[in-house]
Amino acid sequence: MSNLKVAFAPWYTKENPYQVQLSEKLTLLGVQIKPTDCSTLYLLSTIKQSKVNILHLHWLDHFFLLRSNKLQSFIKLILFISQILILRLTNVKIIWTVHNIKNHQNKHLGLDRLGAILVSRLTHGLIVHSKAAENEIIKVFHLRQNKKIFIVPHGNYIDVYENKISQVEARKYLDIPDSSLVLLFFGLIHPYKGVLDLTKALKQLNYEDVCLVIAGKPCNEVMAQDLAQEAEDNSKIKFISGLVPDEQVQVYMNACDVVVLPYKEFLTSGAVILAMSFGKACVAPRKGCINEVLDDTGSFLYEPDNEDGLLQVLNTVVQKRDYLSKMGMHNYKLASQWNWNYVAKQTLNVYQNYLSF
Prior knowledge:
By secondary structure, the protein is of the alpha/beta class.
């Protein structure tokens, strides 16, 4: 496979090591990866100059969604789709890993959906991370068949981040008492992730020695202000706003007892895999991909339609506090099977379906 050249577009590594891990392991398998972070206008020329066999798309909104201008977004969408068509005609194979059903910022959702539907039809292959995600994109993108959909698991983050700090040291760094039951909400903060539902449930939790750490970058100023107010009103909440540096991920993960993911929407969640990679018990709704990565042995799952489900499961966390470490180790073992070497081999198999050398 030494002749196989693949462009990753867009190349987005600032807040997620996903592409770096995948590209490194594909390189070891003989694939030449071309990181591509050009604008929509130069996508076609950049891909042709790179002389790649495959264009592997990731987050589509990079190419045509502008925050405020819907008309310009529509024009960029036409330009983007036109270039994908031309690339197909010149025998460049198009693969798309569907990370999300819609963009996180909820920008121009009509255009977003139109772009996703068009690309889903123009690609040679689609990669998703779970059977639930496959079923979801078939329904949402109105796909008639799933022969070109491939399930490749999301790789784990074991050894991706440093993991040397002890719980005692991590809590000292964050000024959290050793005796506290520490809940962690971690990562980019968007409304669909349900963080305000979590702060509401915490207020109703009848347990004093608990600390909720919210660490991550809010999606906008309103969310930042809301969370700052929640922390000011409730001494049990510690809000650390901003993008967490890679070297500090271990601090938050090792300081906590359980990671809480009260998401309202789940297609794929690297945050779940991250928590499992650090050997943490998890709290999450029983929906979507969650049922394929977590189980009742290592997590506290609740029914998303139950208004009190999150509060009820937090009460269970308190009752089973002594078992959290054992549950986390179970999750670590589960995550261990999704190593990046395996993920890269599965991805290469997808590529090989559409190429002949």
